[in-house]
Amino acid sequence: MKTIVCEEPNRFLMKDTTIPVPSAGEALIRIKRVGICGTDIHAYRGNQPYFVYPRILGHELSAEIVEIGANEQGLKPGDIVTVMPYLECGTCIACRQGKTNCCTQMSVLGVHQDGGMREYMTVRADHLLPTDGLTLDQSAIVECLSIGAHAVRRAAITPGETALVIGAGPIGLGVMKYAKLSGAKVIALDMNQERLEFCKQWAPADEVVNVTNEPLQAIEAITGGDLPTVVLDATGNAKSMESALQYVSHGGRLIYVGLVKADISFSDPEFHKREMTMMSSRNATREDFARVIDSIRDGKVDTGAFITHRAGFDEMIDTYEQWMNPQTGVIKAVVEL
Ligand SMILES: [Zn+2]
Ligand SMILES: [Zn+2]
Fold first, then answer.
1. Does some domain include residue 59?
2. Smallest-distance ligand from the CA of 83
């Protein structure tokens, strides 16, 4: 079978490998779509610290089940599924509390171990989710959107609240979408005006603010001086994360969705005077995946507009570089097998 391996930074190689054999509790799946995300691009570029090469990338997957044993979900060969790529230990303190998304031994497919950029792979059967009623494309973006759904659940957004979402990339867009579906008024903040216009149509964001243009004043004006009760930062940019505190209302909360391999610092008085709740959001759980699958099935997510670029498996290596160029207007690129 064909497998694309990231041999070292900036180099993919198409290889011929043998079809893996599932062990107990695993299923054999045939990969149909692979979504490309920022993590993959960082890994390809060599900017992902502690990343080990060679590695098969790909954690945003839709697939067809080829072989599966008896399983609790009643999945059978031929079913179309998405993959929950976060492999948790099941026994650590986080797992014991049901917070499998932040397992102490977290191993993510396509990051810490080989992912789905290949024709077939084996995966724990309990990490497959059926996506009946969804297309193969839609099944492949469930994971990416689940990150946003999880952050919104962490934020415990209630109807009528104002949520500021910083960063209008694929993760930020997912945050905006699920904040809207939770009844929030959404303000999008980014530096790319074209992307902000997309937020207005797609999420749809109620207001957009360009960070290059007195953003604090604009956000104060929109909220009548109150500022948003929830701020979610999906930039993974240390400067943005540090300046996010200023946009939080008194009594409000700040959620870091994007992460950065750096120290960030902030003014304690700015934090303290607000009695701010600050939290991180990591990965997603089965509950978030289920919410995303339902919302797509119910027609609440325009997945067609979200997927802007695609390539066949054989063209992927030559096309990849283009997807890293923001000039191409890429939001989500998908590889088709
Ligand atoms: Zn991803
Ligand atoms: Zn664990």
1. yes
2. 1
Within a domain: 208: yes
- Do residues 84 and 194 both lie within one domain? no
CA angle, corner 129, sides to 12 and 38, nearest 5? 35
| Residue among 128, 125, 91 at smallest CA distance from 106 | 91
Residues 122 and 203 in one domain: no
Q: Specify if 25 maps to a domain.
A: yes
| CA-angle at 147, arms to 235 and 168, nearest 5° | 35
- Which residues hold their Cβ within 5 A of ligand 1, which is an ion? 37, 39
Which ligand does the CA of 145 lie closest to?
1
Range of the domain at 320: 2-140+302-336
The CATH number of residue 255's host domain is 3.40.50.720
Tens of pLDDT, residues 182-215: 999 999 999 999 999 999 999 999 999 999 999 9
Q: How far is the CA of 257 from the centre of ligand 1 (A)?
A: 12
Burial string for 87-118 (b: 16+ CB within 10 Å, else e) reads bbeeebebbeeeebbbbeebeebbbbebbbbb
In angstroms, what is the span from residue 91 Cα to ligand 2's centroid?
5
| Start-to-end C-alpha separation, the chain | 12
* CB of 282 closer than 8 Å to CB of 101: yes
pLDDT tens across 127-159, in order?
999 999 999 999 999 999 999 999 999 999 999
Q: Do 176 and 224 lie in a common domain?
A: yes
In the block, tokens 């959620």 appear at 255
Do residue 120 and residue 204 come from a single domain?
Answer: no
- Amino acid making up residue 84: M
Output the CA 101–ligand 2 centroid distance in Å: 8
Q: Any idea what the CATH number is for the domain that residue 118 is in?
A: 3.90.180.10
- Among all bound ligands, the one having the nearest atom to the CA of 88 is 2
